[in-house]
Design brief:
Layout: H1 7-12, H2 15-28, H3 35-48, E1 52-56, H4 59-72, E2 81-85, H5 90-98, E3 102-106, H6 117-123, E4 128-134, H7 143-152, E5 156-160, E6 181-185, E7 199-203, H8 206-215, E8 220-222, E9 225-226, H9 237-247, H10 250-267, E10 289-292, H11 296-305, H12 333-341, E11 342-345, H13 353-364
Parallel strand pairs: 2-3, 2-4, 4-5, 5-6
Antiparallel strand pairs: 1-7, 6-7, 8-9, 10-11
Helix pairs in contact: 2-9, 3-9, 4-5, 4-8, 10-13
This protein binds pyridoxal-5'-phosphate.
Length: about 375
């Protein structure tokens, strides 16, 4: 069986150094918000090219803390509308509704699967205060268009960069540095994945960074002095230790994903399969390699029988989820078609060339 993603093997590459650094960690006696978190924040800010990085507990909390901080700063208010792509992972939308804002779902573009700028403009009302852009599957959203719209309509632009660590725009800016503030997840399956839950916020806005910095740790400024009603949302010291090791390999891992993607682009030749749209490969880190097929379910079964594991990201759109029954009468025809037709092929840094060739020939024989 060619696994979709073998986390044990992904991390096995770092076994030796993980064990050594774990021993150092164990012996340090410093287990919460200490030198590892501080060092990772510095390194990740430098990697993204931003002034500030604040480590937090996970990706959902990263989005929530950004929105909460803007609320505390009086920039956002209860009931404000925030535009979100209708085909994103549910966490993007949960962050918005959990904080008391109204998620306004907007159709994606059928070629890129990222939010459709024209539809964004149509969805803007007097209550719209922000756009939560998502670099879905690892592809940067349309930076120029969303920046233009957010400027023109005076909207915050927040990035959900959970799937796009390292994706680079044509002007050299990386994900995490193309908005007012960005949220990252380091969930184990992400391009930069911890060995547990972890996340971070990046921004160039000092005022926002200061608020988030306090919010993630009880709102405190010093041991027993609390400025804000905060949370416990800290990046774990041990996870920061692991992330520092893996960050050094993020670019080479992303390049391996691109090489595999290029191999799929060059060699998959099947009338049953629509390949992802490819423009500038640097703007994509292929967190997922997502194809489409009218016969998706049969293709998935066929691949399974031939020993290739695939996944669907995601099978149920948000407006069809019981958790969001208030959207159940909404129609999002592009989103619905995407959810019916998409299939994610294996693409990760430890996939061998033989495996990739074998997947291609199995697809081409379908
Ligand atoms: C993974 C993911 C999240 C949530 O991250 P967690 O660390 O699991 O909370 C949010 N948004 C997107 C697009 C994701 O892929």
């Amino acid at each position: 069986m060619i696994k979709f993603l073998d986390l044990r093997s992904i991390n096995k590459r770092f076994d030796e150094v993980f064990r050594k650094k774990f021993n150092d960690f164990l012996n340090s006696g410093k287990y919460i918000l200490d030198e590892q978190v501080l060092a990772f924040e510095k390194e990740y800010a430098a990697y993204c090219g931003v002034k500030y990085c604040i480590g937090v507990g996970n990706g959902l909390d990263a989005i929530k803390l950004i929105l909460k901080a803007y609320k505390m700063l009086g920039v956002l208010n209860d009931g404000d509308e925030i535009i979100v792509p209708a085909n994103t992972y549910i966490a993007s939308v949960l962050a918005v509704s959990n904080l008391g804002f109204r998620p306004v779902l907007v159709e994606p573009d059928m070629t890129t699967y990222n939010i459709n700028s024209e539809e964004v403009v149509k969805a803007i009302t007097s209550k719209t205060k922000a756009i939560l852009g998502v670099h879905l599957y690892g592809r940067l959203y349309n930076i120029e268009q969303l920046e233009k719209i957010s400027k023109k309509y005076n909207l915050l632009l927040v990035e959900d960069a959970a799937q796009a660590h390292g994706a680079t725009f044509s002007d050299g800016r990386k994900s995490g540095n193309v908005s007012d503030a960005a949220a990252f997840s380091f969930y184990p399956t992400k391009n930069l994945g911890a060995l547990g839950d972890a996340g971070a916020i990046t921004t160039n806005n000092k005022v926002l960074a200061d608020v988030v910095f306090k919010l993630r740790n009880y709102g405190r400024v010093s041991t027993y002095k609390n400025d804000l009603k905060g949370y416990n949302c800290r990046l774990d010291e041990l996870q920061a230790t692991f992330l520092r090791i893996k960050l050094k390999y993020l670019d080479s891992d992303n390049n391996k994903r691109r090489t595999i993607a290029q191999c799929y682009f060059d060699n998959i030749d099947s009338s049953n399969v629509i390949l992802p749209f490819l423009e500038d490969i640097n703007q994509h880190v292929f967190h997922l390699f997502v194809i489409r097929s009218k016969k998706r379910d049969q293709l998935k079964d066929y691949l399974h029988k031939k020993g290739v594991e695939t996944f669907i990201h995601y099978p149920i759109p948000i407006h069809k989820q019981p958790a969001y029954k208030e959207y159940k009468d909404c129609r999002f025809s592009v989103t619905e078609q995407i959810h019916k037709e998409i299939l994610s092929l294996p693409n990760n840094p430890i996939l061998t060339q033989e495996e990739v060739k074998s997947i291609i020939s199995i697809i081409n024989q379908y």
